[in-house]
């Protein structure tokens, strides 16, 4: 991926960049989002993900990043820029709603699968659902 011709113009990438001379650390190497800008028909870099102003254009891939803030933000940005990322994957409300939907489906399945009551009781307990009527008492059914 060293040549921009190999990059997918519909995606954005993290690339090392050099800070501007007005930076607190003008010799520092930061990370910036690198993307295709249709209006200029060119690849461009934005500000450092730490918020600092950067020189335009990436440094060679593999250049060591020296900014501690950029390195701290890097895992989040890599996840955000990954193909298939959905903002709801990190939204607690969306995740809670998904958990409730799954709990409702499991509740329905547990109601349909009364043959394996002990196992269903363990699953319901693990999901925080009521186990009433699902856990066998000692000696029951023997």
List key phrases describing it.
alpha+beta, three-stranded antiparallel sheet, disordered C terminus, 142 residues, elongated
Structure description:
This protein has 142 residues and is of the alpha+beta class. 32% of the residues lie in helices and 16% in strands. It contains 3 helices and 3 strands, in the order βββααα. It has helices at residues 68-81, 92-112, 117-126, and strands at residues 12-18, 29-37, 42-48. A 3-stranded antiparallel sheet has the order 1-2-3, covered by helices on one side. It is elongated. It starts with 11 loop residues before the first strand and ends in a 16-residue tail after the last helix.
Shape label? elongated
Give helix % range: 25-40%
Structural class, please? Answer: alpha+beta
Strand order of the largest sheet: 1-2-3
Number of strand segments: 3
Strand content: 15-25%
The DSSP helix count reads: 3
Give the averaged pLDDT, no decimals.
83
Order of helices and strands: EEEHHH
Low-confidence spans: 136-142
Distance between the termini: 66 Å
Rg is 26 Å
Biggest β-sheet, characterized?
Answer: 3 strands, antiparallel
Could you outline the blueprint of secondary structure elements for this entry?
Blueprint: E1 12-18, E2 29-37, E3 42-48, H1 68-81, H2 92-112, H3 117-126
Antiparallel strand pairs: 1-2, 2-3
